[in-house]
Amino acid sequence: MTLFGCAREKEVAALVRLGQWPQACPAELRAHVSLCRVCEEVALVSGAFQRARAEAGTAARLEAAGPLWWRAQLRRRNAAIERIRKPILGAEIFALTITLLVAVGFLASQAGKVYGWLSWFEDLPRTLHFEALWPSMPTSVDGNLWLVVPVLALLALLSGVVVYFASEKQ
Amino acid sequence: MSWESVIPNVLAGDAKAVACPPMESEEFAGFYERSAQALWAYLARVSTDPALADDLMQESYVRFLGASRSEEGEVAARRYLFRIATNLLRDHWRRPRQASIEEIPEEFFGAPDESGHADSKAMLGPAMKLMRPRDRQLLWLAYAEGYSHREIAEITGLASASIRLLLFRARHKIARLLREQELNDGRRR
Predict the structure, then answer these.
(1) B172/A51 Cβ within 8 A
(2) Nearest one of B94, B110, B107, B102 to B158, comparing CA atoms
(3) Closest approach of chain A CAs to the CA of B73, in angstroms?
(4) Which residues of A touch B10 (CB under 8 A)?
(5) Interchain pair A77, B10: CB under 8 A
(6) What is the radius of gyration, based on Cα positions, of chain B?
(7) Mean of the per-residue pLDDT values for chain B?
(8) Using CA atoms, how far apart are residues B131 and B145, in angstroms rounded to an integer?
(9) Which candidate from A50, A59, A84 shows the least CB-CB separation from B115?
(10) Which residues have a Cβ under 8 Å from the Cβ of A150 and sit 6 or more positions away?
(11) Torsion of CA A118, A119, A122, A123, to 10 degrees
(12) Which has fewest Cβ within 10 Å: A109, B86, B115, B147?
């Protein structure tokens, strides 16, 4: 016997597990166990745990194996779909960013023409004599209108994108 | 591999991208039948909560099936299953507070044991409740399941060299508790 164990403790534990302790065990080993503190503890503890294991086994409420197997398959499949979806989402975001950049670039390049259209738009109420219909209507439009309209349009577009992604996540 | 080849297969659920499960349905049914009672007993006795044992056992099998492990035989598969269950128990104990398992007070683990009436005969239940969770794990794996120190180290993630000392201390403590319990029962009679 050493400080933390005995060379025969495995033998004792195995006999207890097989249900051969103490009746079917050699008298020499029984004599050793009565003198060896470690083996005595092993016999006591192994016996208690083996009885508890047998009792707990009968108390188990086991679910059928089939549903567990299918649940595992479903989880594997969902994980695989999730793995595939991640790069697709990345590609969608990339495409949207490029589209927005192109749109902004186009608007910037067309700013001069837009200003011309806006000038025509500014003159439209005067041409059609709308001021006669609505006395409160502004007769002159602010010069920054050419900047405000695209910004509002961009905000509307971004709001739509945000709503789309939010609804898709849900 | 092109998108066209992967996406329809994944959605159909029969692609290689999903990967073959480690066990077929019939094979799993046999393995489950042979291992479920032992796993439930381990979880129920270590957690002292049969309802929690039910939940953790199901999750253990689902994760076991989800793991892509090569075939290593039933003994290794069983050991791996116990390892998953041990990790789930540890996660469960750690969840309410972000503290080390060693710092969590004993009463936190002492959920009501509905199978106490069976323990009164075996005397193990009350003694187990007085043990630290890690000691319960070690003792159960060693003396109920008969795992070697190396196998216990693999299941619990502890260093193989420390198992011997930890197990010695735990065994010594529970043997003392069992003897005391026996003495008390003898006096009552």
Answers:
(1) no
(2) B102
(3) 19
(4) 77, 80-81, 84
(5) yes
(6) 20
(7) 78
(8) 18
(9) A59
(10) A107, A114
(11) -140
(12) A109
- pLDDT score for B12: 47
Which chain B residues contact residue A49 at CB under 8 A?
Answer: 124, 139-140, 143-144
Mean pLDDT of B65-74: 76
SS3 state at B57: helix
pTM over 0.90: no
Residue A34 C-alpha, separation from nearest chain B C-alpha, in angstroms:
15
Query: Rounded CA gap, A10 and A15, in Å?
Result: 9
Residue A51 confidence (pLDDT) above 80:
yes
Q: So what's the pLDDT on residue B37? A: 92
Per-residue pLDDT at A25: 83
Three-class secondary structure of residue A112 per DSSP:
helix
Answer whether the bond into residue A22 is a cis peptide, omega within 30°. Answer: yes
Query: Nearest-CA distance from B87 to chain A in Å?
Result: 18
pLDDT digits (tens, 9 = 90+) for A70-107: 999 999 899 888 888 888 888 888 888 888 988 888 88
**pLDDT at position B26:** 87
Please report the ipTM that was assigned to this predicted complex: 0.72
- With cut-offs at 50, 70 and 90, classify the pLDDT of residue A123: confident
* Crossing angle (nearest 10°) for helices B149-156 and B74-94: 50
Helix (H) / strand (E) element for B45: namely helix B25-47
In whole angstroms, what is the distance from residue A143 CA to residue A115 CA? Answer: 9
Q: Which residue of A has its CA nearest to B25?
A: A69
CB atoms within 10 A of CB B65: 23
Using the beta-carbon criterion (under 8 Å), do B10 and A56 form an inter-chain contact? no
Q: What is the CA radius of gyration of chain A?
A: 42
pLDDT of B5: 46
* Chain mean pLDDT for chain A: 80
CA B24 – CA A105 distance, rounded (Å): 57
Backbone phi, psi, residue B80, to 5°? -65, -40
